[in-house]
UniProtKB/TrEMBL annotation:
Keywords assigned by UniProt, alphabetized: ATP-binding, Kinase, Nucleotide-binding, Transferase
Database matches in InterPro entries: ATPase_NBD, Carb_kinase_FGGY, Carb_kinase_FGGY_CS, FGGY_C, FGGY_N
A GO cellular-component term linked to this record: cytosol
Name of the molecule in the record: ATP:glycerol 3-phosphotransferase
Entries under Pfam families matching the protein: FGGY_C, FGGY_N
GO biological process, one term: glycerol catabolic process
Similarity field: Belongs to the FGGY kinase family.
Domain Carbohydrate kinase FGGY C-terminal per the UniProt entry, residue ranges: 261-447
Molecular function GO labels: ATP binding; glycerol kinase activity
Amino acid sequence: MNELTPLILAIDEGTSNAKAVLVNELGQVIARGSRPLSLSHPQDGFSEQDPEQIWANTLAAIDECLSGIDRPLSAVAISNQRESVVAWDRRTGEALSPCISWQCRRSTPLCAQLHAQGAQASVLAKTGLALDPMFSAGKMRWILDHLEQGHARAAAGEICLGTVDSWLLYKLSGGQVFATDYSNAARTQLFNLHTQAWDPELLVLFAIPLAALPRIQPSAGFFAETVATGRLPAGIPVMAMIGDSHAALYGQGGFVPGLVKATLGTGTSLMTPMSGPIASTHGLSTTLAWHDGTAPTYAMEGNIVHTGAAVQWASRLVAGESLDQLTEQAAQLPDNGGVYFVPALSGLGAPHWQAQARGLICGLTEATSGAHILRASLESIGYQIRDVFDAMQQDTGSPMTALWVDGGATRNRWLMQFLANLLQCPVVRSLSPEVSALGAAHLAGRALGIWSDDEALAQLERPRERFEPETEASMETHYSAWKRALERTLC
């Protein structure tokens, strides 16, 4: 390797930040850039972002990353927040809607209507996903219902309906390419896992015209070439696109069944790879993890809506001290003081799928402090992961021997030890803050032949820290108390 060795520019567009990193052929990050993103809640249950801000901040992150770099780029790779949806004018590229966040519950009435019509079993069988407002199809329908002549314009091919990966690709290619990958398509509730294509019956069910949807491609392979934008030169091939949680599993090295990873961000995704689309009977989702250009890899997943977001919310509730100070105080408490927080702030995801559930803090006394509430919010991350972890073990029929974790909340060492104690298995923390971006870069590198196969990728250095479980008799008592609090939020 020398100074002329090509680099992969990996974009990781999440809910809270737009990031860009440069990855070399050793799998090392040699430069990075980041810009924060804002999320607004115009009314109860609504969560949205400005798609133009997403694009502008992604470009700013790219420019920061490429500043001072004088080496050629071999490819661009994209990982992105999943299920979030944007509509834009196919001719002008102008956004026609907000980016409706994966957290948004505005399509709850539509999902309830489809439930009442008995559509749940068919949707689950085809897509592997519960009929829930988290997924993209209901959001797309809401957009068309609220745009002037939305359905007619979409049917005429004038409107693009896409997830964030397709929005970024469209912009990066100067409006030349409208496409998505298998992993993002699998999160829309319009993609049939068995035919690996947009499903005609689901398109009718949700009233989404095929003409408004992107072309579906393998996650690794040629998508488009960039146009010159800021420091990003023209003619760089976009060689990978993948949803961020799937990318994190790939970046962790989870190529074959047996590894379970949890990405702790605004929400949390637990995912384990599978050889085929095995249906869950315990409230989890079946999804297509990625397509490496040769064959698809499937996964079982549990999506938790509020984890990092719950801690942020709790810190605002007890405002007056910094989040870091409160978190430190919470970790120093001998226990949670009997306080439990069920962060169903916009419903509950896996394994409960209760869109109507609302948050609950219980066990408050005169001795309760802000630190107790913060402690309860941190513990709620562990309890929700335990709910999904147990369901995953029941579905797979085999014990999970470790949990591999990544994401911002994993920097909290107290939380990592609490999680290991609660699960009674090792928690293996990635020390890289860019696992999703690395996963996308690894897929692009596979497509380019930089890494020949999964075995070559497995040999890359991945710094990690291991937390071994400590035996604490009180953990099951606390978890039982959590379950009782949880029951009070369920419909």
